[in-house]
Amino acid sequence: MGSSSSKVADAAPTRQDRQKCWEARDSYFACLDRAGVVKAGDEGKACKDENEKYEANCAKSWIEQVIKPRTPNVCEPLYRDHSTWDNNAI
Amino acid sequence: MSSLLTGPALRAQCRRRAFHTTFFRSQKHPSPPQKSSTRGYSQFSRDRASVGVFTPKSAALFVAVGVGLFFYFRHEKAKLLEQREQERAAKQYGRPKVGGPFTLATPTGEPFTEKGLLGRWSLVYFGFTNCPDICPAELDKMTEVMNVVEKEHGSIFQPVFISVDPARDTPSRIGQYLTDFHKSFIGLVGSYESTKAVCKAYRVYFSTPPNADPNGDYLVDHSIFVYLMDPEGQFVEAFGQAVDTPEVISKIHDAVGEWTKEHGKKT
Do A15 and B169 touch (CB under 8 A)? Predict the structure, then answer.
């Protein structure tokens, strides 16, 4: 399949391509949850395999689009309970 | 009036009325109902003028009600026609100016204009093949809608995908992309200028810059409405992302029903 940029040029993503990307994304995010990491990229080597699979299966532009929205989802319970607010973590 | 008159005065009054009654009766004019004290007279005249239950009084009532109803229904009908006319006018004034002429290319590279959409109901969506989630979800929704409305009304619908990413979306790429969705989808793309023109006609915003890299990895920000256009190419309705499949189906059903009522056929 090669790098994500050559994939973009060759052919449009198919339903299977999108499915693979969402599955890789889900397992990477599940790993972040297990590691207790809020911001993707802060996990160190904890989710290396999952992250590699995620980057191999999703275009870079897609990753940028979906990683960012994750933070508010993870942080929502924190926002709801003001006593646990920690600006550094968010 | 009667409460002011008592005893002899009342009787005198009644007698006077009775006299008038008999006088007019003899001239073959019906008269208003009489008080109990005049019963003797009216009883007598009714016996002479009536045929069975059909008295002059009931005949007059019958004619009066008939005439009344005739005018009432004529009035109601006129009111209804006027109301319908007003609704029609309002619909025409209220119809947004969406859609218009365009020249784009099909997946096989043939030119395709707005005339190619006439004679069928079209569902028009703007997107790009590298779209991660919203476009495929909307195209899946359109596919579901197509499956239902085609079963109900026949092959009178044309789903259309117009690319807002002319730098990367070649006609053949769009053709390949659309194989994941309903088989009657037609994919259209043009130059940057013609893409801009068709987007302007449909009031669609898109963020692709004119000098986008054909090999670049970028996303396009764009409006995500599905436009329902009638067989004459006129805008009917725009469905946002929040409008779910059953609602789109029922709106299409309503639009086709109304059109059929007006034109006598579905397309």
Answer: no
d(CA A7, CA B114): 32
Question: What gap in Å lies between CA B215 and CA A8, rounded to an integer?
Answer: 7
> B45-63, pLDDT tens digit by residue?
555 555 666 788 888 999 9
Report how far residue B114's alpha carbon sits from residue B188's, in angstroms, rounded to the nearest whole number: 11
pLDDT tens profile B206-238 = 998 889 999 999 999 999 999 999 999 999 999
* A50 within domain boundaries: yes
Question: Considering the entire predicted model, what is its pTM?
Answer: 0.69
Is A68 part of a structural domain of the chain? yes
Q: What total of structural domains would you count in chain A? A: 1
* Domain contains A1: no
User: Which 3 state secondary structure label does DSSP give B148?
Assistant: helix
CB contact under 8 A, B176 and A18: no
Which range marks the domain in which residue A58 is found? 15-84
Chain A CB within 8 Å of residue B110 CB: no
Rounded to whole angstroms, the Cα distance separating B187 from B102 reads: 14
**A6 belongs to a structural domain:** no
Half-sphere exposure of B208 (CA within 13 A, CB side): 31
Q: What is the pLDDT of residue B9?
A: 53
